[in-house]
Amino acid sequence: MFTRRKPSRAKHRSAERRTGVVRKVLRHRVFVSAAAVVFALGTASSASAAIINTDDPTPQEQLAAEIVAEAGSTDRQWDQVDTMDSILPVKEQSAPEAEKPEAAEVPVEEETTEETTDDSSDDSGTTVDISAECSDYSGNQAIGCTMTLDHGWDMSEFQCLVDLWNRESGWDESAYNSGSGAYGIPQSLPGDKMAANGDDWETNPATQIAWGLDYINGTYGSPCDAWSHSESTGWY
């Protein structure tokens, strides 16, 4: 009768070691496969180099390198998967702002000056509205012409006045006769008589002319009568 012999203790231990090695290999295989999938190294050689970095690898490390090389040589099916559209909400682009119209230019109003026939003023700043009939004259004579017409005399009377006061003062409001003391355009004697028509009688030709016309009107009646007297006597 054949009697089955029990395995020796040495053989039993050898079997346990082989079982342990197989378990370690399986664990390494699972770990290495997971590492190969996660990191997706480009080639089997680079993957195995990443796992084994020693000059004298153990049998387990060599087996792991073979598994990595085998995994790297297989077709990567995930490369064939179509690219998925993004599931994130797309931010709507706001429409470009319309260009703001440029502000319309506000027309600048040109300053206008009222046209008048006033083109003469005296030294004190007094302005006299010159009559259109006196447009041929200027300065003090234009003032005298206008004031003569205002007294109710015509242009012929004013011509007599021109001749009279040309002889007396040359129509200069500051004319002074040192021999007699007569002063101003009408050669008032003395000059301060003209203060009856204004305190500015020394400098304002209009004040002097106003006094002279009042004097002629009261003494001779008209400029031409005063001129005739002056022609006959040399004074008026």
Q: Can you put this structure into words, describing what you see?
A:
The N and C termini lie far apart (194 Å). The longest helix has 31 residues. A hairpin with a 5-residue loop joins strand 1 and strand 2. The chain has 236 residues and is mostly helical. The chain has a two-stranded antiparallel sheet. The radius of gyration is 65 Å and the shape is rod-shaped. It has seven helices and two strands, in the order H-H-H-E-E-H-H-H-H.
Instruction: Supply the number of structural domains.
Output: 2
Overall shape: it is: rod-shaped
Strand portion, in percent? Answer: under 5%
Helix fraction, binned, reads 40-55%
Structural class: mainly alpha
Helix and strand element order: HHHEEHHHH
Average pLDDT figure = 75
Note the total helix count.
7
Please list the strands of the largest sheet in the order they lie side by side: 1-2
Characterize the main sheet. Answer: 2 strands, antiparallel
User: What integer value in Å does the Rg equal?
Assistant: 65 Å
Task: Please render the helix and strand layout as text.
Layout: H1 9-39, H2 44-51, H3 59-73, E1 120-121, E2 127-128, H4 139-150, H5 155-168, H6 205-219, H7 223-233
Antiparallel strand pairs: 1-2
Characteristic key phrases:
236 residues, 2 domains, two-stranded antiparallel ribbon, mainly alpha
Short structural description:
With 236 residues, the chain is mostly helical. 45% of the residues lie in helices and 2% in strands. Helix 2 (44-51) packs antiparallel against helix 3 (59-73).
